[in-house]
Amino acid sequence: MVPNAILMSAFLAERTRRLKFGAMFNVLPQWHPLRFAEDFALADVMTGGRMISGIGRGTVPREAEPLGTRVGWNGDPDDTYNREVFEEQVEIIKRAWHDETFSFDGKHYQLPPQRIDDRGRGVQSLTLIPKPLNVPVDIWQPVTSRPTAEYVARERHKAVFWYQNRAMLKRNWRKYAELVEQYHGVRLRAGEDRQAVLNVVLADTHEQAIGRARPGHDEFWRFLGPYGWSKAYADENGKPWVYGRIPSLSESIDQGAWLVGTADEVGEDIANLQRDLGLEYVSIFPHFPGMLREQAVEQLERFARDVMPRLPGNAREPVAGRA
């Protein structure tokens, strides 16, 4: 767990040249919006424009409430409060990044605050220094509900889809494009401005992959299952699962939310997704609770070596002399 992905990104960027860095996700209600805007902008300048902005509203009370915010579910009072704060923060951050000077007067924030004196003059506006190197800043945001899909499309953010029943993923993927066209009159390519996050566990045999995946899968769901994540799974009639239900690994695989098996099996599954969704961006999640660092690195190496060449558009010519 990294408490400040922007700081970590700046540290890593100093040791690299081409890699870009982002977070899934910076939980904005745990930040002051001006602090986030400043830190991200400075990191973007320091890294030569290699920062990617990923933002979210948060999921887990124990990481939110000690920092003075709240999270909720399904439109309850905490969920409403969280969404109000988040949307004001996004508006402030965008103004700070993109406008020469800015101010904001909302329900939860007033910037600048009233009664600030500056050499006998009242402060009426603020200026962010420095600005991000690349503006406007592209923003990636997870889409987990219809209200969020509406907001992400309306704000012209890029959508991230994770842990969803495969049929639901396809519907939501296409619905986002419809919303963008509705709000902006822009018709997206099949996979434009969206990405799928894939939970991947690879091994030489299917049985070995199942054995590797089960402990991390089950612990992951014990952690997040109580917070309603099972709503992204569907029963045989296409209806969302009961709130708080904890799936088995086999159920997660059947839902299409976890890709577990050999390189042939996982590669074929991703190739099918590429065909159905027109995938342009994919993130893989190869590191689950209980995995050691070397196991996570091995999963990344397997994916790069054994799966990526199988995907459409990524086939490589044999290299002479390579074992």
Describe what this molecule looks like in 3D.
- With 323 residues, the chain is of the alpha/beta class.
- It folds into two domains: 142 residues, TIM Barrel (Alpha-Beta Barrel); 129 residues, Luciferase-like domain (TIM Barrel), CATH 3.20.20.30.
- It has ten helices and eleven strands.
- The strands form three sheets. Strands 1, 2, 7, 8, 9, 10 and 11 form a seven-stranded parallel β-sheet that branches. It has a two-stranded antiparallel ribbon with strand order 3-4. It has a two-stranded antiparallel ribbon with strand order 5-6.
- A hairpin with a 2-residue loop joins strand 5 and strand 6.
- Helix 1 packs parallel to helix 2 and helix 5 crosses helix 6.
- The longest helix has 22 residues.
- The chain is globular.
- The protein starts with a helix and ends in a 16-residue tail after the last helix.
- The C terminus is likely disordered.
Topology of helices and strands:
Layout: H1 5-13, E1 26-27, H2 33-46, E2 53-56, H3 61-64, H4 77-98, E3 104-105, E4 110-111, E5 117-118, E6 121-122, E7 139-142, H5 146-155, E8 158-162, H6 166-184, E9 194-202, H7 206-224, H8 249-255, E10 258-261, H9 263-277, E11 281-285, H10 293-307
Parallel strand pairs: 1-2, 2-7, 7-8, 8-9, 9-10, 9-11
Antiparallel strand pairs: 3-4, 5-6
Helix pairs in contact: 1-2, 2-4, 5-6, 9-10
Salient structural properties:
alpha/beta; two-stranded antiparallel sheet; 41% helix; TIM Barrel; 10 helices
Structure in a nutshell:
It is built from 10 helices and 11 strands. Strands 1, 2, 7, 8, 9, 10 and 11 form a 7-stranded parallel beta sheet that branches. Helices cover 41% and strands 13% of the residues.
